[in-house]
User: Fold this.
Amino acid sequence: MISRLDSLLGEQQVSTREADLLCYGFDASQIKGTPVAVTWPETINDIVKISRFSYDHDIALLPRGAGTATTGSSVPPQGAIVVSLERMHDIDELNIEDQYVVVQPGIINGALQKELSRHGYFYPPDPSSLNFCTIGGNVATNAGGPRAIKYGVTRNYVKELEAVLPDGRIIRTGAKTIKSVVGYDIKDLLVGSEGTLAIIARITLSILPEPETIVTLLATFTDLEPSGKAVFKIISSGIVPRCLEFMDREAIKVVESYSPTGLSDSESLLIIELDGDVKSVQRDSERVVRIIHTLKGEVKVAEDSISRERIWKARRAIPAALFSIADTKINEDIVVPRSQIPEMIVFLRRLSEESGISIVSFGHAGDGNIHVNIMVNREDEERYTTAKALVKRIFEKTLSLGGTISGEHGIGITKAEYINMEIGHNEMDLMRGIKRLFDYKNLLNPGKIFP
Ligand SMILES: Cc1cc2nc3c(=O)[nH]c(=O)nc-3n(C[C@H](O)[C@H](O)[C@H](O)COP(=O)(O)OP(=O)(O)OC[C@H]3O[C@@H](n4cnc5c(N)ncnc54)[C@H](O)[C@@H]3O)c2cc1C
Assistant:
């Protein structure tokens, strides 16, 4: 049956080679799937053909960007056809006058940033994976990033979407205007839908002019709690940093031994970045320094782009560096109200000490989003079971503090068993109804989100 797909698309656009099935069979969660074919559509019409084919033959589809999802959301279900959007990577339109860009889903976030900066513009959502994840994947997961604290997440920038429904119908939703309230907002439903409702084929995004200046500060602390306090003291003083990132002692240590960048040996650190006009950035950075000093922290200011890049290199190296601790990372991205960060990070430290399992915390503390990484060797069954049990305790604590179990990575496979901890019965029923309405045959990325 799959060989018929060859005649629908070009020969170079379909593969059943074992190597391709293997390479497109997993994502950053390390979970492995078993697809039957990989396809590379080059136009929206190709996506329509693949969708109709799968609909007629009851074959599941997995839309895939770069496979950097950490939740298993881009792992193909058994027997599925992978729809890799990587060849659809063009910028179709750049409109500086109305400040938007129209892109194909497979464009890499970092490549779009580079092109925009040539025009003095930027696209704010900047996941730490920006050098390899796609904009289509970012939309499907409503990705955030360090700049979310000031500029928001992907949803805040998606103006219009063109998408293909599981039966091959094309929809266009949203508008290029600043405002639009015509009917239900289907566009916002597709943002964050993890490839379960439609295949996103063209995206219109808002863009912003680059700020006049950027200053990066590195604050280090000899204790854990003051860094958490600094986060909400900075924000409650009225300063809105562009980024406010947190690393605990374990994260600092692991990154320094993996790729030394000169981070001092401390209990915790914050990367604080301010942007805007020169005068206000200078005034705010002086205020930040004073706040850090009252909490007995030390601050270094990175004046030039080389020292800024060194700090960000260290921050971006953490996910890879973690594998020097153990071969498996149980990775969560909880969010708590900012005022609860000190309590949450102290809780995580205690949980690690009590269980004897390494827990490394870092992340976008400015918006309360902490990446919690439980590190364990997979073949050690007993410790792995203990580590898995910690996830529930972490989620219970998060929810008791008024938080949410995922800020940006989504549910995928790994968090599906916990979704009921946060989402009530009636709301789950509504979500299932929406899924049925879009995908009556349950062919688009089945087995994700719903327990
Ligand atoms: C080192 C590292 C750092 C990361 N840092 C961040 C971070 O700071 N912030 C953050 O939010 N995330 C982060 N992530 C997670 C991940 O990069 C994001 O979720 C990203 O948006 C996924 O993009 P992708 O192109 O890799 O999508 P994939 O992993 O390929 O797909 C993710 C989901 O989107 C769906 N999808 C992909 N393309 C489409 C499409 N065109 N139409 C419909 N559905 C589609 C897939 O089916 C899947 O459900 C990080 C991951 C890694 C490995």
User: Anything to note?
Assistant: Residues 2-86 form a domain with the Uridine Diphospho-n-acetylenolpyruvylglucosamine Reductase; domain 2 fold (CATH 3.30.43.10). Residues 381-400 form the longest helix (20 residues). The chain has a mean pLDDT of 95.
